[in-house]
Amino acid sequence: MVWGLQNRLARIIRPGDGHTVMLAADHGYFLGPTRKIEIPRKTLEPLLPYADAVMVTRGVVRTSIDPDANVPIVLRVSGGASVLNEDLSNEKITTSMREAVRLNASAVALSIFVGAPHEHESLVNLGHLVDEGEEAGLPVLAVTAVGKELEKRDARYLGLATRIAAEFGAHFVKTYFCEPDFDKVVEGCPVPLVVAGGPKLETELDALELAHNSIQAGAAGVDMGRNIWQSSNPVGMIRAIRAVVHDRATPKEALDVLKGGKPRK
Ligand code: R5P
Questions:
Q1: What's the N-to-C CA distance of the chain in angstroms?
Q2: Residue 88 pLDDT
Q3: What is the pLDDT of residues 28-77, one digit of tens each?
Q4: Nearest residue CA, atom 3 of ligand 1?
Q5: What per-residue string of b and e applies to 105-127 under the rule 16 or more CB within 10 Å gives b?
Q6: Is the Cβ–Cβ distance between 54 and 88 less than 8 Å?
Q7: Which of the four, 60, 171, 186, 201, has the lowest number of CB atoms within 10 Å?
Q8: What is the pLDDT of residues 161-188, one digit of tens each?
Q9: Residue among 20, 21, 22, 26 to mutate when testing ligand 1 (max atoms within 8 A of CB)
Q10: E strands in 25-179
């Protein structure tokens, strides 16, 4: 790995423990003004001090994040379909590598849609993006997207999709947690995996357990959105997630952090 690429990746995945808490906030690129992130600046500002990186589109970077905010940007660079379309897999690269460099992104992210109508195009997009990322020194995050088919999230499917992403050269991969056998998904993917939170779970404890089980199974961290900013206590929630991911807190210990207790360090 070239120095610049390695350096950028180390800004996201902390070298001390190999873990990361990424804040996912790119939902608007196909969902529009998602609940509780209708005004991105308002939602993001209090959370950024606790995020190891934030995943957003260039529109949100430009309008809603101050240039002097010291948070690494993982720039969403694929898109082209909205939630109004049955098939979400028809994506292209929508933001150039040059623009990513100009925005001082620490990584670029795109979705791949394994098994979907536009599987082929999304994988070719990934190959091209990795070539460009290698040239510019920017790591590529491949997101194993499932569109509206949330039931696809089992170990067999996720193992296939994450491995393909790694084989195409993704430097890290975002996927979903699954039970059973998430450890097998991790084992079959030779690059770091970060876990998406998915739709808001019933309780905060459920989301903390998801993060905890992911780390226990070998994930590098989480890239969580709705389960943080749709919580009734978003700052408490991201601090609690940090306690699980970086400080090895149990979900119950992390609940104390959520309720206002001091972080463990
Ligand atoms: C979806 O494709 C987006 O990339 C989101 O970043 C992703 O779903 C993670 O956010 P959440 O934790 O809300 O699922």
A1: 32
A2: 95
A3: 999 999 999 999 999 999 999 999 999 999 999 999 999 999 999 999 99
A4: 27
A5: bbbbbbbbbbebebeebbbebbe
A6: no
A7: 201
A8: 999 999 999 999 999 999 999 999 999 9
A9: 26
A10: 53-56, 73-76, 78-79, 92-93, 107-112, 140-144, 172-176
Distance 193 CA to ligand 1 centre (A): 14
Q: Is the dihedral of CA 75, 78, 84, 87 positive or negative?
A: negative
Tell me how far apart the alpha carbons of residues 140 and 75 are, in angstroms, rounded to a whole number: 10
Q: For the chain, which domains are there? A: 3-258 (3.20.20.70)
Q: Does residue 255 line the site of ligand 1, with CB under 6 A?
A: no
Contact 118, 91 (CB under 8 A): yes
Query: Ligand 1 within 6 A of 223 CB?
Result: yes
Q: How far is the CA of 24 from the centre of ligand 1 (A)?
A: 6
Give pTM, 2 decimals. 0.96
> Amino acid letter at 20?
T
Distance 26 CA to ligand 1 centre (A): 7
Q: Please report, as a single letter, which amino acid is at residue 191.
A: V
Catalytic residues: 174
